[in-house]
Design a protein that fits this description.
By secondary structure, the chain is of the alpha+beta class. It folds into two domains: about 90 residues, no CATH class; about 55 residues, Nucleic acid-binding proteins (OB fold (Dihydrolipoamide Acetyltransferase, E2P), Beta Barrel). The chain is about 30% helix and about 25% strand. It is built from four helices and eight strands, in the order E-H-H-E-E-H-H-E-E-E-E-E. Strands 4-5-6-8-7 form a five-stranded mixed beta barrel. Strands 1-3-2 form a three-stranded antiparallel beta sheet. The longest helix is centred in the middle third of the chain and has 16 residues.
Length: about 160
């Protein structure tokens, strides 16, 4: 059995923040079996794919199974959403080069950037955007939920790496 889904990635895919991480941990301790559904490698807790599906279903990402064989309306989009989440949290992140377009003064955790080859504007999550300026290039990885994550050290001064 392969354990490749981390607890933190599963919680971030559902809702960013420590509250969801705590809820996922409580669900794991109450409903999943160590060694069969999850393992602790010392640094992180890793889930099997079946256990990740159970957690997503229990935390209201999956709709309940329909009583008839015919799928209910909207169920295809929900199951597609779960597949996207599982794919995002089990595959290694792919780095993409992006150029900063806009830095938000009122929200220091996010900024807008344009992806490689003239891609559309993306929202990037950073620890602190105070030293970022439009035009700077950075590496980002695709996160769950459509928000990208910055990879690397923060700029040492305003506009300087």
């Amino acid at each position: 059995m392969r354990f490749k889904c981390s607890e933190r990635a599963l919680a971030e895919a559902l809702l960013p923040g420590e509250t969801m991480l705590k809820r996922v941990g409580e669900f794991r301790l109450a409903n999943l079996k160590k060694g069969l559904d999850w393992i602790d490698d010392g640094a992180t807790v890793l889930y099997s794919e079946q256990a990740a599906k159970k957690a997503l279903a229990a935390l209201k990402v999956l709709p309940p199974a329909p009583a008839s064989d015919r799928p209910a309306t909207g169920q295809r989009s929900a199951s597609k959403n779960v597949k996207d989440i599982l794919l995002a949290i089990t595959t290694p992140p792919l780095k993409v080069r992006a150029r900063i377009v806009k830095v938000f003064a009122t929200n220091p955790r996010f900024l807008h950037a344009a992806g490689d080859k003239g891609a559309a504007c993306i929202t990037v999550r950073v620890r602190d955007n105070v030293n970022f300026l439009p035009g700077m290039e950075m590496d980002v990885t695709a996160g769950a939920g459509g928000v990208w994550d910055y990879v690397g050290p923060l700029p040492r001064a305003r506009g300087r790496w």
